[in-house]
């Protein structure tokens, strides 16, 4: 039993295999490089995005608080020389609808409230309150705290008390002495709503941290207290930092620390903001990029296949035809040699095949005898 040998690979098949192999390798390498560069770009883009958006959120909060501070400063500048009724009207105007400022008042140096918005706490002793004590010596911004004297008056309950942040400043008389303190209680729920709205607009999660490193506001309900992460440690230390960490929900986030919430001459609350952005923020853009790359590679691959087929048809098919012609002639077929001048190599092969056929047809050259017809000499016999 004879062992069959595999047919040799044709030129067209070899070319097609080479083009397909090269195309696949080129596509795989291209996709890998594009995705690798996309990951680098995504990392830098997310870092820049969380830093810029986090700073924007901090500035927006500080700018809104500064507007309230400027209203307090306007009342303070007129408090010592103006009619009490006018000052009382200005304090009531500062409170307005009560959505931002819940109470505004003027306390004398002994701590007794002399004027207040809507006459709330009129005559009350606030000498032990931090806003009054600190306001006697200069501009003051107080961290969030539960309402004490105003909670019942404003409709708060023990289970759900009002929470305030404070602004205060001394009123300086014409002789340079302190005539009293102007104080504002700002509803902290206003700040919560402002930061929540800002976070949604910017595609962030925002966390407000005080000087003690305590989390006092979070736009993500699942994070209710400071956690052991580098971002919160940096916030507690008041150090600007950008991190990539895995949070308790198992997702790696980009986070940045804004070490101060400051605008113009607004007194410092001692707050720091941690802004967080999810890496999925750029998933849609990355998917679109990948789709674009695949479409381009597919188009290039299709064009390459069409050009390969045309090349094979135009340049390789004649070699196949010539080879088949030579095989048939070798098997005794009486046919004219295939001729093609498409390439110089093909033309030379065609001419050589024609010359071989001419010699075969013409027989032995004159003067040349075949070994089969030459008689043997006696010695050879």
Automatic annotation (TrEMBL):
Keywords linked to the UniProt accession: Membrane, Transmembrane, Transmembrane helix
Span list, region Disordered: 357-381
GO biological process: one example: signal transduction
Coiled-coil stretches: none
TM region positions: 12-35, 293-316
Record Pfam families: HAMP
Segments forming domain HAMP: 311-359
Cellular component annotations (GO), alphabetically ordered: membrane
Biased composition (Polar residues): 367-381
Keyword flag Isomerase: no
Xref: InterPro entries: HAMP_dom
Protein name as it appears in the record: HAMP domain-containing protein
Organism from which the protein derives: Tabrizicola piscis
